[in-house]
Predict the structure of Aspartate aminotransferase family protein.
Amino acid sequence: APAANNLEAFFMPFTANRQFKKNPRLLAKAKGVHYWTPEGRKVIDGTAGLWCVNAGHGREEIKQAIAAQLEEMDYAPTFQMGHPKAFELAARHAAMLPGDLDHAFYCNSGSEAVDSALKIALAYQRARGEGTRTRLIGRERGYHGVGFGGISVGGMANNRKFFGSLLPGVDHLPHTHLPARNAFSRGLPEHGAELADELERIVALHDASTIAAVIVEPCAGSTGYLPPPKGYLQRLREICTKHGILLIFDEVITGFGRLGAAFAAEYFGVIPDLMTVAKGISNATVPMGGVFVRKHVYEGLMTGPENAIELFHGYTYSAHPLACAAASAVLDIYKNDGLFQRAAELAPYWEDGVHSLKSAPGVTDIRNLGLAAGIDLESKPGAVGARGYAAFVKAFELGLLVRQSADTLAMSPPLIVEKNQIDEIIDIFGKAIKQAA
Ligand code: PMP
């Protein structure tokens, strides 16, 4: 393993760069729900990597599928060409997706999926003769990756601050989390429809004929895990339908089982027009992302006066054969191991566990849905993020990986986690919060 003081030479982690350089943490080995450091210290993976290793690390079935694919064909272009595994995978995804979401575009990450979905939405509006619809609506505290499309519609001003060249005409819905009303409450918050009506206000402001699409995470993940209030997504759907606006669900985190259903769209019974996925699609064993679209979007693109031939879009690695092989193998695992069902069954146990932390020092808010949670710590005066970082570092020292941003910590264990491992996660996390107080 490289000595920690060599990191400077070759590694450029932009996120939390300065802190990382002062205190580098390395992961060298992984299996099941555990990582090991280069020194051999075992760390329980409380975040499924980055919300992605849903079936656990080092799955033999995925390894074999990738090896077999390598034997057969390493790579094939998807420009003017195709390969059977891509079509087989798309058929399998279509069969498990709710409603008539039945066409797939594959790419390599969540950020690519988001940019692709935004382009597809704009192209669709044009194709059906609604070329004035160029505005995109995101949401405050939304996270949609780091491409220019994603940071434009994303709701974290901090992620945009260095960049002037954003997409024009983007507006943001207010975020959905009202801590004063929801802290420590279980189940979904109540104020959904009234918040979704903010979309009517935005539509009235700009006129529906200028708006192409609304993009939201059904449950905001990276910005602190914010489950949607009751009725929120249903109401957004109604308003979008009424005004001819496409609704995009960014299911990069919620897709493939995190909520105890295949997709949040299924969990909430709300069908978006487009859906972006990544992470759990391939268990993160190889990079992959995707956009799923409904039949009317596909047909509109293919038959409109300015049809999809006008849309130039695709990546060298779209539907990469190794990614398709991995994604197909992970679908088998999800099914054979019943992992979505398992997440649903474990969710109440998980909820009890994370809510047992509410009396830990400095905890001001706890949110959970499915097999994930967000926990806010009270910020130290004049030092936003210091307490969260301290808790994160303590947790790692004590043998637990969590995700930190500012004074919020998030956890999302692999869906194969056992109850005693949930106990261990909660126990270590409680100790880390206490030691960071
Ligand atoms: N959308 C959502 C909802 C995400 O959570 C993420 C990543 N955390 C992204 C998009 C971006 O994905 P990637 O990091 O693979 O580009």
Q: What stands out?
A: Residues 110-127 form the longest helix (18 residues). Residues 109-111, 114, 143-145, 217, 221-222, 250, 252-253, 278 surround 4'-deoxy-4'-aminopyridoxal-5'-phosphate (CB under 6 Å). The chain has a mean pLDDT of 93.
